[in-house]
Amino acid sequence: MNYKNINLEKSMYKTGNKDFTAVLESLDPSENYKGTELESLDAYQRQLKRFDIKVSGPESDIVEKFFINAESAILFPEYISRAITQGINWANILPEIIATRIKIHGIDYRPIQSVTSDLPSGITTNAVAEGASLREVNITTDPNLVKLIKHGRTLSCSYEALRHQNLETLTVILRKIGSDIADEQFEDVLEVLEKNAFKIDVSGLSDGNLSYENLLKIWEALSPYQLNIMLASTSSVRSILALPEIKDTVSGMNFKSTGRLITPLGAQLIRVNLISGNVVYGLDKNFALQMIQSGGILIDYDKVIDRQLEKSAITITTGFAKFFGNTIVKLIY
């Protein structure tokens, strides 16, 4: 099969818009393996099989296995990237709350925005009479650039310290790096939420106590959008779960059995450790936020392949922006 004959080179990490796996897929398409025992593997995983490298499980290999020859060493940066991506994905709640995610190949991004014209004077219905003009949706470029922020870590270790370490163990460490990066990304999200949220401050009325009536204010303020996500601190989630309107409902029973809470308002409630104080954010995940990512995870692949792990940088650059107005509400109680 063709995967055994691929010539692996460092240059496969610097091919413009394609990442390493995409380059491999162009040389060894996965569709060619349908109906075979390798059908479940992507092009990178087939290369691991080619060199008999096991990166997970109780029988995973040691780091040195990647460096049995010059070609198998080319696979090591992608292993690092995938392990960090796993950590980002496992810790990240972004897929739950963003409307769209795009990749760009630059550092500047200017989003588009749209505004729907009002009904003509004297018209009170959206029904279009014969010969009448349709309402206009004006799509323009946002005058403000989205701020893209680089997050990452520097690996500081020697190859000698790692060479005999189990890959499963190293994977856990790399996943933790990914998890920490995901937390930093969410700090950027919080800045966007704070800047664009419609604020409802009932702190002078609630004495720090959260009521079901307060939650209804979030639902009401988002109209005509839907309240389908609520983000809150641990203490706020605890207060919400203790409300009789939730504790004694099907929602409360579902939380006790699955740990997942869909409130009677139809919104998923998510605990966020980075949120503090008596605050609850409500948003319509279908229209509130967009995520922009510049490229993928960047690794000093030259250093890694040449076993010069000391001070090797791992970075990812992302930014977040509001999509539509009135889709984010912040309750302060």
Walkthrough of the structure:
- It contains 13 helices and 11 strands.
- The strands form 3 sheets. A 5-stranded mixed beta sheet has the order 5-11-8-6-7, sandwiched between helices.
- It has a domain of 155 residues.
- It is α/β, with parallel strands linked by helices.
- The chain starts with 19 loop residues before the first helix and ends with a strand.
Structural descriptors:
alpha/beta; globular; 35% helix; five-stranded mixed beta sheet; 333 residues
Structural class assignment:
alpha/beta
Strand content: 15-25%
Q: State the major sheet.
A: 5 strands, mixed
Could you say which overall geometry the principal axes of the C-alpha atoms support?
Answer: globular
- If you compute it from the alpha carbons, what radius of gyration comes out, rounded to the nearest whole angstrom? 25 Å
Residue-averaged pLDDT: 89
Continuous helix count: 13
List SSEs in N-to-C order.
Answer: HHHHHEEEEHHEHHEHHHEEEHEE
Gap between N and C termini, in Å?
A: 64 Å
Uncertain spans: none
Number of strands: 11
Strand line-up in the sheet with most strands: 5-11-8-6-7
Helix content: 25-40%
